[in-house]
Each structure stands twice: as structure tokens, then as C-alpha cells.
Amino acid sequence: MLIYVIRHGQTAWNAERRLQGQKDIPMNATGLEQARQNGIALAGILGDTIDQFDFVASPLGRTRATMEIMRTAMGLPPLAYRTDPRLVEISFGDWEGSTIKELKATQRERVAERNASKWDFIPPGDDAESYEILSWRTGSWLNSVDRPTVCVTHGGVIRTLFQTIADLPKSTAAEGAIPQDQNHPDRNLGADDRLALGSASQRCAQQVGLGCERAVWPVRSREVAAIGAYLT
To answer: Given Cys at both, which of 63, 88, 135, 144 links 160, Cβ 3.0 to 4.6 Å?
Structure first.
């Protein structure tokens, strides 16, 4: 099963390195152009196979806007896709809207806890999640995929998908940079030679689209290509 996973375009909070989480922050001008360019690149990758793909997005505004801009750039009806709440970004609870630098000034010990175990750390706040908790719902979504899929979602979600698929060390997955403006090539791989294409480096893959170094993560059973470098 082939899944193209695209991160939404940049927002002002991404540019300021604020913890964004589930706050519904719109894309900035850079993000709008990233979405358009990713749509152009994906259209070239999918070619005449586009009709075989399901299109699904996180229901937050920045992911829906990314999907609609991409689909327009691909020559497709912009609204002909679905959303799935399991693809919503990780919740950073009370920390949403803050930068790590700001938090260090008031909650240095909690930031140190996060640095020591980023995958399992739960920020303060009733609705806050760890990457481990996030992986439960993203894993449920992954298990529900039954056809080739284009998915527009968030950096944290993509980290958990790569960890699940590639069985990455959780500490590695939690630190992986998820680009908003890089395009990874599709490769026609056999069942015993699956790859997940991402931005954390093991070995470089062929460059396409907007250029920038690519890398691949070995996968056992599924292909996931990441399109789209800012931490959420």
C-alpha cells in the first residue's frame, strides 16, 4: 500500500518556532506557496494514477487549506477529499503558543524532562498528549488504510507514522525533522524491499521536485513517501 504523507505549509507559529499543536493557526504566504508547489510536484509523481488514490486530511484549517491548494494545483476539484480526526496534530496542552526558549524561563525543569524523554513526555494541560499517546490514534488510522492514499497532516503525526512503520527507535522518531517544502520520490519497490521516505538521514535517495537532501528509512510492510523544515 502506497501512502503519500504531506505536511501542511508553514504558519507564522512554525516560523517563530512556537509549539502549535491543535491550535488552528492558518498558513502564511510561504506556506501557501509550499502547498501549491507540493501539489505540482505530486501531480508529476502520480501522473495518470491519480484516480487510484484516496485523499484525506486532518480537519484543522492549515491541513485542509494545504489539501485544497494542492488539489487545485493538480487540476482536481479542491473539495473532493475527506477528513479524519485521527490525523489531528499532537496536543501540547498548556504549552501551545509558547516557544521552548520562553518555557525554559518559567518551567526549566519540565523542559529538561521533555529533553530527556521527548517521546513519552506529556506537557501540562488536561488535553495534552505524548508522542506515544498520539501514536495510538495514528496507528488506528494507518491500520484503516485500504487503498493508495494521499494524506495531508502534521509533523508530529508523521513522526509517529514513521516510527510505527519503520520500527524506529522512539527517541529518533521524536527528534526527526519533517519538511514542509521537500519532495521525496516514489520508488517502485517489491514487497520485500519497502521504504519510507523521510527527512531523518540514513542514506540519500534520488532528488526530485524542489531539491534538498532526501533520506530513506527501511520499512517492512508498507510504503510511505513524505512530501513537504520546521518542527511543529
So the answer is: 135
